[in-house]
Amino acid sequence: MAQALTIEELLLLPATVDLPTAGRAFGIGRTKAHELARSGAFPCPVLRIGHTYRVGRAAILRRLEIEDPALQPAPTTDVAQPMHLAS
Please, what's the b/e burial string for 55-83 (b: 16 or more CB within 10 A of its CB; e: otherwise)? Predict the structure, then answer.
């Protein structure tokens, strides 16, 4: 079994990762990750691009039920309303 990634490491992943890296997110080794991807049983959606597999960071975080701060709406700030001048 592969050493699973920490939450901090998961949050630093790029938009897509290779299959071995995605497997590490779930504590799955390289060979098992490829077996699961080929059979359609990987824990989250896998993109097949030519001969390579890619997995989206957002899909990994959703499956692990980790909130992605990058997908959270930006905090709103109170914008001062323009003052109307008396004429």
Answer: bbbbbbbebeeeeeeeeeeeeeeeeeeee
